[in-house]
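Lecture 7, part B: from sequences to assemblies.

Below are the input chains for today's worked example.
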Amino acid sequence: EPEVTQTPSHQVTQMGQEVILRCVPISNHLYFYWYRQILGQKVEFLVSFYNNEISEKSEIFDDQFSVERPDGSNFTLKIRSTKLEDSAMYFCASRASFISFSPLHFGNGTRLTVT
Amino acid sequence: KNEVEQSPQNLTAQEGEFITINCSYSVGISALHWLQQHPGGGIVSLFMLSSGKKKHGRLIATINIQEKHSSLHITASHPRDSAVYICAVRSPYSGGGADGLTFGKGTHLIIQP
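Predicted structure of the full complex, as structure tokens:
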């Protein structure tokens, strides 16, 4: 069964550094998402992406964050200058279409640790 | 903004027991997801429903749109069912955008042999 893949599984970076989290969504999917989960807290929506642009973003997704689909297969989340509070598990997800009953597929996540 | 509440927060049961996890939300939705998160952190989608009931193996999910409530049931529970079960809703008012999701805090389920 096709799946969403995320790399790396764990990333450690120093505060102030830039990080890029990578995701390869399922190949025929059109809608892409990033979520994050701070340790011990609930999962939170960051951003949705369709047709090469952001369709929705949350208050968390400030100017330090950006997303890109550089080559038609990868979907990346960039954090320009990481802060300690960016430490979290970041999940990528994709969906084939916008209709309500189109299921969402999650990747296994990238655990980001900012020191 | 949609508020998603799950109960119980923690549940420990014996193998074979019938398990029920509840989810309620405050604003009308277009879809509700039940997700399973294992200790390693990965999330698996179990069900997506907008009405009625769905069954997959030993798992059953129901939703009552009028009451803004959903339940996830596990029949003949097994230690491998131990995980965090998360309810997430999709609505224009969810705070997750029109297509983003708002998540509950999850229910930590432990099934003892």
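Note for the exam: The two ends of chain B are 40 Å apart (CA to CA). Keep this in mind when comparing with the next example.
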